[in-house]
Amino acid sequence: SEAFGIMLQRRLVDSLTSLLTAAMVGLCAGLVIGVLRWFPSPSGRGVRGEGEPQSIIGQPTTFFALILLLTGAMLVLGPEFVYLRDGFGTRMNTIFKFYFQAWVMWGVAGAFGLWLISQYARAWVVNTMTALMTLAVTASLVYTVAGAYSKAGRFAGTATLDGLAYVRNIFPNEWAAIQWLNANATGTPHVMEA
């Protein structure tokens, strides 16, 4: 019981991920229940009353977006408590597998949310959102340039389409072995190494 208490404290109190996703699960679950109350009853009459105007809350698209948010939050929250210990002795493999799916779901729901805001919010909210999203997208593109520059070795070498050119320069012994195999091996032999 002590180990369970320590684990619970570590996951809930010491982890901001757990607190934020638990809050998101609660918020989404409450909103899903609210959306379900907007759907018409089997008799054809709306739960909120016949004369009330249809709201975006009652749309199936809103319900679907909330389900995506809720499922994504549960996918992030789940590995905080249940995971498979991987080859590294941690839970990283489980986290990567689950978080990847969660971010896809949140991305789809986020795109819908941005569209929803652009359709129903006041002009100043739309303008603020547009400015923030423009800033966020521009900031995310920094990696495209910086990553290409870094991965290409700051473009210091000679440009070539030969994928083995770096081996010749950095690992000359391996280059010689590759050249020997290409010249002397026939067929498709298998090379094994420890």
Commentary on this structure:
This protein is 66% helix and 0% strand. The longest helix has 29 residues, at 92-120. The protein has 194 residues and is mainly alpha-helical.
The largest sheet, given as strand count, sense and whether it forms a barrel, is: none
What distance lies between the first and last C-alpha atoms, to the nearest angstrom?
46 Å
Query: What percent strand?
Result: under 5%
Number of strands: 0
Structural class: mainly alpha
> How large is the count of helical segments?
8
SSE ordering: HHHHHHHH
Cα-atom Rg, whole angstroms?
27 Å
| Shape, per Cα inertia axes | extended
Helix % is 55-70%
Q: Stretches where pLDDT falls below 50 for ≥5 residues?
A: none
Mean pLDDT: 82
Keywords:
194 residues; mainly alpha; 8 helices; extended
Write a compact overview of the structure shown:
The protein is mostly helical and 194 residues long.
Can you lay out the helices and strands and say which pair or pack?
Elements: H1 2-12, H2 16-38, H3 60-77, H4 92-120, H5 123-140, H6 142-151, H7 165-170, H8 172-184
